[in-house]
Amino acid sequence: MWLFGGGGQPGFNGDFYVLFARFQQWTTHQARDQSTMLQWLSNIFWQERLWFPEGLGWADLEDRDGRVYAKARDLWVALPIAFVFLILRQIFERTVGTYLASLLGIKETIRRNAAHNPALETYYRHSSKYLAQKSVVELCRQSGCSEKQLQRWFRRRRNQDRPILIKKFREASWRFVIYLFAFVAGLGALIDKPWLYDLEEMWKGFPTLTVLPSQYWYYMLELGFYSSLLFSVASDVKRKDFKEQIIHHVATITLISFSWCMNYIRAGTLVMFLHDSSDYLLESAKMFNYAGWRNTCNYIFIVFALFFIVTRLIIFPFRILYCTWVYPLTIYPPFFGYYFFNGLLLVLQSLHVFWAALIIRMALRFLPRNEIVEDERSDRDETDDSEEEDEERNGKIKKHGTIRNGYTTHNNNHRNHHKTH
Question: In a designed cystine with 259, which of 87, 264, 270, 275 is the match (CB 3.0 to 4.6 A)?
């Protein structure tokens, strides 16, 4: 009877409910403490003296008299937009991207995977992806392969880890379409705005600057797209500048979000538009490079390099940064938000210098000797092997006019034309 709480004894059910009630009180108390802590942190973070010039605050950004201002809660719209971009990307790459690849002569290729060999696999994973001459004798003994077979195995194993050519083409074609769309959208949103032509206009009336529908959607689409890039970066083609790409995406998302919350919208639209003005050229150059249209790729790359240098190394630091660092000081004294905003812009400028150095090095190498331009900034793979790359790009191996290994014949007129010059 005690177990069931009968006979006036402190039964099991009674003890259980007492403990459960105390647990509820404890969790409620903890939740209240956490809520109080979060509220305290929120109050500290959103202090007006941190984010606004002296004498201004959040009350100045309350909607009134038909004037609408940016609000932090608007940024939640970017999350569903990011997921829509991820879905659209999958559809685009499987349909439009594949179709464009076939038009340019890029076909699905069947790679010869390296045969399973535990000894060679252990060496590949833990020692080196390349066959060291000093290890040849021992590996031959452990695997039962000849030296030539070892070289073939390591070549195929490296090639097995590299993304197939059509995957790189699909990704480039998706980014080309989005960057081109973003550039056109930015041009449409800014073409009639005075701060596009007179940069000092971006601060006139700050921070009480109303948000136009075109600015709203330009911001949300850009934020959604860069968020989708951050979500998908782990599954994308692994690039040489992977860490720099992560830093770039995080800095861009933070910069877009912060400039929206603090009503730096005019400056933000100019920064986004400037970045969108050249990225689509790089992606189109990659597409033609993957298709073997070498001359077309090289010409577009040179145009991209010129655009990149002019926009990122001249206009951005000497015009945009000047108008965010120097001109605001003539209107109001500096505050934390001023330093934070310009600090993020300096992070972007540091990345511009890093990428510009790679781009200029490629351009200088290309111009004197008319070499093939490779995307050293982001698409060179650390396990790249020229023999396997040619096999993948051509989709065949020709010997005395015959096709070996059953690969589909591709159109190489553009490459042959390049060799004749």
Answer: 264
